[in-house]
Amino acid sequence: MEPTGEGERADASSTLEVGFSLPSDGAGVVVRDNVERRQFLLRTPSPVDPEPTDSSRFSLPTDAAVRIETDRIGLAANTVVCVRDEAGSMLARVDQQGREELGAGTYSIELFGAVKTYLRTDGPLTVDAQPLETVLSFGEPQTVFVGARSSHESPATTITTTDDPLDVMAAVSAFSSALKTTSVERSYPTLRGHPPLLELGDELAVPDALDVPETGVSIELPPTLRHVFVATPLAYYLGARLVPGDAPRLVTEDGFVHDFDGPHGFEEAVERALKRTFFLDCVVRTEGIYDVPLHERQTVESRTDIGVEGLYDASLGERLSAYFEIPYEEVADLLPEWKLTTHVAPRADNIELLPFVTNDLAVVRTPSGTEVHHSEVQAAVVDDFLRGDVDAGTVRSAGTTTPSETYVKPSSTDSVEQAWISDGTPVGASKTTPAAYRNRLQREPTQGDIGITVVCNDPEMLAETDIVDEVYGSRDGLSFDVDAHYDLSRAELRETLAEPTDFLHYIGHIDDDGFQCRDGKVDAETLDTVGTGAFFLNACQSYDQGLALVEAGAIGGIVTFSEVINSQAVGVGRTLARLLNGGFPLQASLEVVRIDSDVAHQYGVVGDGSLSVVQSESGVAVYCEVFDKPGEQFEVSYHAFNTSRAGIGSLIRPALTDSMPYYLSSSGVSNTDLTADELREFLALEQIPVIYDDTVYWDREFLS
């Protein structure tokens, strides 16, 4: 994609969630999701003048629309293009150097870009996926209608409940009103809406306006908060009602029964049921509106006698009965790596968090883990120091620091991310709070460039500030406003922290009294409001100050648990900056850094670890592991993390070879052998981190 450098915004839409602007030369349209801060460029041969138009002309939901006149639209390479006729029937799907030519007719075109975008125009139409650009050609200038939809989901209403487990059961049973379908297509993230909010009150009150689907499925549970919390995401996904029972089990009106008190225990049994039904829905849905060659379907059909064609039109009860006839072990290795496991203490004060946990389709567990004494964390700092040739006095602390909570290492899971909603400071998981979820939900749409703020409050740490020029704002096709501040006073830092921005990178000293400034310290607990969405506090013992930023308005950030050596913190800071600038979510960024750095275990996430600062080029956040093979060959392993734009259930098609099938995002992609030239060609498509010999590379220099 060509660099744009946006000019003045074209007020082609009054809708706040989605807007349209012009690139600096006016030759095209930039589609903007103003809530999720995503941009998608449609390039035209010459300047266009977008005019607002009625979005109802599109068959699928759109938040806003414009019309332009052009004979050609260029898109980022590897943009998937689906073309349908007026009746909605699929005519063509083009990706990865494919080409389709269609004659006269009216076409609806779905573009899988950074923002969900739809086109409607008359043919003839040619779709040509070239190595560096995907091109839509119309033969001669045509009126092209451009519609877009924000991926942001807001709860429709609020349900009031008491802390009585029976009332919570009734409230959770209404969560499935947010599903946009009860067919297998609900496994697509865009067809799962945000559940209604919960609010504790004196009595149960479920709004009459909620349209709760009648699926004929129920989950019987002993009436305890623990059982309700663990079963909530599964109940939401299945559209099941929670009802009291002596033993936990899944029941359908067709007579199917599945017990949850088997040899693996209640919590793991529910987890397996969620993963099994979700995964097999993803397999069966390939018979529907997106008929793609899915690797997982091919493998499941080779191992089992599942009847995909018949199950697509079957009732939910019939599908569940068929799914649970398949031994779990036969599909376990095919399941997508789950995005999130949330450890939630089953207490009344956590009831209001259930809609947010469910929106992530998280696996829910009651908290368990191993207590880690603060001295062990501090000892790790000493070990890190002894491994390196650094000045013992060069640490990022302005004074003494005292841990405010007990450290705990949550029990291991196979999820990409873990969140901890309980007492203690988690090591290896996000410390999630109610404020983080509410702040993300309530964040106002903003128009204009992506805001990056860098603050360096110690002249000895200027080495890390080269990220201002080298990393932040270096993405082609995205427009940034990067603002750097140095040696701020207390008043200046307070003002900077209050200013609206998408991301704050702080470099300096922090201790129990707060952020060090040239004339004293600023304690984040005294701040009334914080304007940043995400942050990175690369300073000693910044955990408590990070939590305070979340309570004051931020959504999530990366912090440190203890003292960090300056020279090592610089390396972590640079790597994290590049990952965040590449679209990696906060928690996923740390996972990659831990491959490359011995000191990354000193860093953690507070707030919402799934937050991304900017969009990734391909929707998911991707890195590759490369291994040497004889004969100038390389073995490439492809890894994808889900993002807010491409949640669990999304599809990916790695561009490693022309014949690659589709995979479920975050599924393990089989290792692929490539020559050096083929690997260079693949890495030229998109700048992604590459792990080679346990080191993170950002270009192809390891091939030289």
UniProtKB/TrEMBL annotation:
Protein's name in the database: CHAT domain-containing protein
Species of the source: Haloferax chudinovii
